[in-house]
Amino acid sequence: MSLELLNESKVIICLGTGGVGKTTTAAALGYMAAKAGRSVCVVTIDPAKRLADAMGVGELENTPKRIETSSNLDLWAVMLDANSTFDELVQRFATSPEQMEKIFHNSIYQNLTENLSGTQEYMAMEKLHELASDQRFDLLVVDTPPARNAIEFLNAPKRLIGFLENRFFRLLISPSQSVFRPVTIATRMLLRTISKVVGSQVVSDAAEFFQAFEGMEAGFKERASEVQDLLAQKSTSFVLVTGTHKDTVDEALYFASRLGEFDLEVELVISNRITPDFGEANDDGNQNLPGEIRENLDYLTKLRSAELGELSRLALIVDSGKHILVPQLSHDIGSLCEIQEIGEVLIDSKSKFVNSVVP
Question: What interhelical angle do 147-164 and 246-261 show, nearest 10?
Fold first, then answer.
């Protein structure tokens, strides 16, 4: 991979199933972009603390933290905290201190980030919007949750816009003397049914919660549209990270097909932990090796050949010039020096996938 992707992108979103080295890849891309002179923030949406571990720092928070490097790179990192992001959002866009306090003290809001499906993805969308507007950074590298959860992140703007335009939501935020002042018989019956199941107090709290957001929904909708536009821009690049096993390749193919449903394309595929090329057991230089070592070499050669055969299916996503192989390392990644080691492999053209080596 040349530096073109790192130099021209404003947002790089790393996608992939769990355990394929996606977080390490995001950190390495961010490091190499910063080394090339860019102001970079690496963002992890994954609630696991892998990014902090990979970059060799103790903790990451919901606000960007500058990473100390020997060459004083302009490199930052942040880990999404959905609860804090939601609180900051309310503080920023509430029309009055009274509205803010009313939201914070509502029982529905207090449990929202724990239980509402999609909250993590909605807040990730908001954090992406916030950081994309931050003048300190000219590149964001985003480490998403495992692949199928990342779909929800990409779909969050559309889902939120649809929710805000929903007629029932509009009813709930409209001021009224009673939450049971429906405009139709059907709505009245729906509210009564819900009340029987969860209790009238829950329905009342929910209605008060939505009404507390009156006047803020336009801002939510506007930012959701802006994030939707950001994801579709040419300066936003999608990097798909895979392993060598059949299930990770299957997942990558599935995810690429889902990206197509959003009219988005994979710009680059990075396959991690490939068995290194040690040559053939019967090569001239290896014929004098002890028998046991030659057997091990023969096994590794066959393993690499099987891995390349599996990875050849990814030609359906990108051509060979956009598929990078990263070899299996002899150690785990836990420092910036090791992140740089991965980054140098990523920008080394010799690591690109070559179809001719596939059996």
Answer: 20
